Amino acid sequence: MIVRINQIDISRIDADGGWPAETYAGAIQGNWPADARAFELQILSQDEKQQPLTDDFRQQQLRQMIPQAAIALTTGDRPAGSASEAPIVLRLDGKIAAEELLPVWGMLTEPDGSGQYGFGPTVKIAAEPTDAWGSVRIVPSWKRLASACADTSIGLESSVRLRLMAIPTLFVPELVDVSSIDDPRWEHLLSECQFYLGTTPGLTALQLVVRRMEAAQVKSRVMQRLIAVARGEPAIPD
């Protein structure tokens, strides 16, 4: 399996997204700060021996890489879960249907009922089958994030767009609260966002945004993390 991480123009994060523009999954209406850099992580269609890799295999691997890339680029040399680590907010937008967004409602809280979450207002009046789009935001532990990414009943390969953001604790309630992609609060929320990871339609790649980090550092951190996990290090920090 060959993993490529290439720097891209930050405008491509949404401009090339291909998500339905008039839904919660559409482009966030706000500007990234000047020091933000964007990257795209892909798994090539052939492995090191030129053997073809199926789309299903690559999608499965990308699901597993979501928490690993986030851990690599948000914790750095700090232990995951340390006081200086910015909390992660998971945003999932998609059709409210089985095998799409609907299963997410079952993971809003920890088993004891604790947790922070929000979901967007959605009203479906027509009784006949029609698409209704929803938005769910969760502040997950690394374990719960990994569980959500591994849950194939959530349609990351179809209508569900995953967006993961690390932001200072002060702004977490606001990020959990915001539903609409054109909410004016996005301008300052993006200015405070320290890390972003998003999926592309069909789960063909992961898009990353980092602050004050050079391309070589981004590639090194992510690849070192993936190699460490492949060699047997714990995939999810305690």
Which residue ranges are poorly predicted, with pLDDT under 50 across at least 5 consecutive positions? 77-84
Give Rg in angstroms.
Answer: 17 Å
Overall SS class: alpha+beta
Strand content: 15-25%
Tell me the count of domains: 1
Question: Count of DSSP E strands?
Answer: 8
The N- to C-terminal Cα distance equals 28 Å
Query: Per the principal axes of the C-alpha atoms, what is the gross shape?
Result: globular
**Number of helical segments?**
6
Q: Order of strands side by side in the largest beta sheet?
A: 1-2-8-7-6-3-5-4
The biggest sheet amounts to: 8 strands, antiparallel
Describe the SSE topology.
Elements: E1 3-8, H1 12-15, E2 36-43, H2 55-75, E3 88-95, E4 117-119, E5 133-138, H3 142-150, E6 161-166, H4 172-177, H5 186-192, E7 195-199, E8 206-211, H6 215-230
Antiparallel strand pairs: 1-2, 2-8, 3-5, 3-6, 4-5, 6-7, 7-8
Helix pairs in contact: 2-3, 2-6
